[in-house]
Fold this protein.
Amino acid sequence: MKKDYKGIIFDLDGVICYTDQYHYKAWKMLADKLGIPFDEQINNRLRGVSRMESLEIILEKSEKAYTEEEKVEMAEEKNANYRELLAQMSPKDLSSEVKETLDLLHGTKLLAIGSSSKNTAFILERIGLAGYFDAVADGNDITRSKPDPEVFLIAARRLNLKPQECLVVEDAKAGVDAAVAGGFDCAAVGDAAGYGAATYSLKSVCDLKELA
Ligand code: BG6
Ligand code: MG
């Protein structure tokens, strides 16, 4: 990996912590109530995608058409269930490997979060990282979600850095595409590892220690 990045912008869900199962449970509750089939495979398509776009993907299997108002209500219901699950998270849900890597990088790089989630502040607080990052850009700051680069461009601007000076770390293909579209190098982990569009493919977030 190139060593001279001045900043590192991390996606949150699936990179810093693992909320996949909570998203799955909360969407499943809603889908079951509506009688719509929903499984882990469909859940995988929701990675990196905004809440309302996620709902549209779930409703692809619905025989009924819903109004915008009904959709907003559904998304709110899912989010209430999701936040109840998130409330059970604690600093124990931040792995020691991820924490060690962040602490090591903190000395030499500026660190930011670039997440589609509107629950970013709540999640960071639950896992003990409130106030930890030099900048946070999230679902509340943007009008276009990944694969649009907006969230990463805002994060870079808040770090006072150019995209070319930052590395983005992502677990979603939509997130890798967003980073590349914004002119960032991108390190892919998890589900996106091996995705050809990424600059680097990592076995885990710990591989970033070599940048410190
Ligand atoms: C992303 C997740 O980080 O946030 C997506 O990968 C999710 O699955 C999106 O849909 C929006 O999350 P929230 O918390 O605003 O509903
Ligand atoms: Mg993610």
Residues 83 and 119 are 8 Å apart (CA to CA). The mean pLDDT is 97. The helical segments are 20-34, 40-44, 51-59, 68-86, 96-106, 120-126, 150-158, 173-181.
